[in-house]
Amino acid sequence: MAIWGGGEYLSGILIQCSELLLIQSSGYAYQRGYTRAEVTADSYIKSDWTDAGYVGPMFLLLGFMGALTNSSRKAANFAGFYKGIQSAGAATIYRIDALDKPYMNIFASSWALLAGSLVIAAPVIIWKVQDTVPIEEDLRFSDESLGDVVAVAPVSEKV
User: Fold this and answer.
1) Terminal CA-CA length for the chain
2) Whole-angstrom distance, CA of residue 24 vs CA of residue 107
3) Around Cβ 116, how many Cβ atoms within 10 Å?
4) Bigger pLDDT: 50 or 53?
5) Is residue 38 within 8 Å of residue 29, measured between CB atoms?
């Protein structure tokens, strides 16, 4: 395998960076007129994750996380690590918010953390994401054996 995976992994990283730039730029356009004074006004209408248009961006990183392994156990470990890092970032932003810093500063901090995470994730994507992973390699650090995960007979369709 070439260091850049024939270009497809670099393309994936560039797509992720482009998505981040597009989404955060859209957020910036929204954020410019959004201040602490505005959200404390009686006329302010709150929104949350149940409102229309919120769910889509939540799934952007799942493609790369799913490409790291075919093993659900390994994927669970990666997801746990990701959620730990995400929680640390959320705690940091929560603290900045508790200090009543301007929302634009919080937005800039969030943007920097996201951009930094893509820089940190790039080597993992470049050197660990593969088109196919041999089952033996996927099982290497688990307590499962080949007999535990491979079907003993072909699966047939019953109509």
Assistant:
1) 42
2) 9
3) 11
4) 50
5) no
64 within 8 A of 121, measured Cβ to Cβ: yes
pLDDT digits (tens, 9 = 90+) for 37-48: 887 888 877 777
Give 133's pLDDT tier (boundaries 50, 70, 90). Answer: confident
CA 19 to chain centre: 12
Helix (H) or strand (E) holding 62, with range, is helix 62-67
CA-to-CA separations, 64 to 38, 54, 72, 78, 128, in angstroms, rounded: 37, 21, 14, 11, 10
Token duo for residue 28: 């910036």
Chain segment 70-115, per-residue pLDDT in tens: 677 777 887 888 888 888 888 988 899 999 999 888 888 888 888 8
Query: Full-prediction pTM beyond 0.85?
Result: no
Structure tokens at 148: 């535990």
Question: How many angstroms separate the Cα of 63 from the Cα of each of 20, 69, 136?
Answer: 14, 11, 23
**Angle between the 103-128 and 72-98 helix axes, to the nearest 10 degrees?**
160
Residue 70 carries which side chain, given as an amino acid letter? N
